[in-house]
Amino acid sequence: MRGDDPIREITSETETPLGRLWEATRPEAPSARDWDRVWAAVSAELDQSAPRAVVSFARPARRRVWTAACLIVVGQAAAVLLALGLSLGRFDDETVPGRAAPRLATAAVRVEEGQLVLIRSDADAVQVTDLSTPEGSGGVDPWYLVYNLLESLANPVVAMSE
Amino acid sequence: MIEAPTIEIEQLTDEVLVARARQRDAAAREALFQRHRDEAFRVARRLLGDEHDALDAVQDSLLKAFSRLESFDGRGGFRFWLLRIVTNTALDSGRRRKRRAAPPLVGEPVSDSTDDDPGRGLDRQDLRRALDEALAALSPRIRATFVLFAESGLSYKEIAETQDVPIGTVMSRINAARRKLQETLDWEKLKGLD
Predict the structure, then answer these.
(1) pTM over the 0.80 mark
(2) Would you identify the CATH topology of the domain B116-194?
């Protein structure tokens, strides 16, 4: 198929100066300095990539463990604080004098069958509004009173900030 | 006593050196580099037509070869594997940068050449430029096949394994390269320079 020397084969087969031309233009080897530069660059790159490879395999595993541990600790701390805060809040509501349940006035209210009555108890008196009639007591629209009551129960808070 | 390991490592086969290089043995890597660098450069130089581009391609190829040594299955040996990487890297590089225009007749010396005859050096530059231009006219695949055949002396079978093509394809590419080179080169002009 082919001789040992491809150049000789090219020359013999073509009987042209192609083989000689190929031989005459054979690239000269780079200088020792050029090779030193090449090898220095290759070695430096390989040395740099080596620790990175180790790090890339080692660090994420450690990081993942530490991250998971930290998340568990933080989660537990948050749960404890939340539970503590809730229990303290309830305790405050029950024990702080200022936050005690308001005193309510009591009264006997007579409600007929089929009658719709709104009963509102304040500290001083009991207000009774008949909602069965289009206009309750005092000529006031009873639904207006209902809305007012609901609004007061909602106790809305308006937060403002700059 | 101190030089003994150096002598020893030079006598080791590529297979042993590759095994050591896989264990991050710097001396084994350097021995492989010194053993195959010249051939790698000649192939890259023929493919790219420029010394500096060829050195860059060899540097990239060495880096790829050593950093991917784990994936090297040992088939065909380190030399063929490196030549395969060099060929692919040089062709990629050539596609990116395009082949440079004619190099200067008297360019920067690339080596400490033993040829001290300036007239002969000039002729050689012209001859080289003529051949570089003729090689550049070949398609990259045909050029690579022919360079591996003519410069590295690989057999058809070895080239077929290196390029993952049938032997028939290698033979037809080499014949096509010869024909094209014969047609492209101006032999009358070259005779005068010879």
Answers:
(1) no
(2) Arc Repressor Mutant, subunit A (1.10.10)
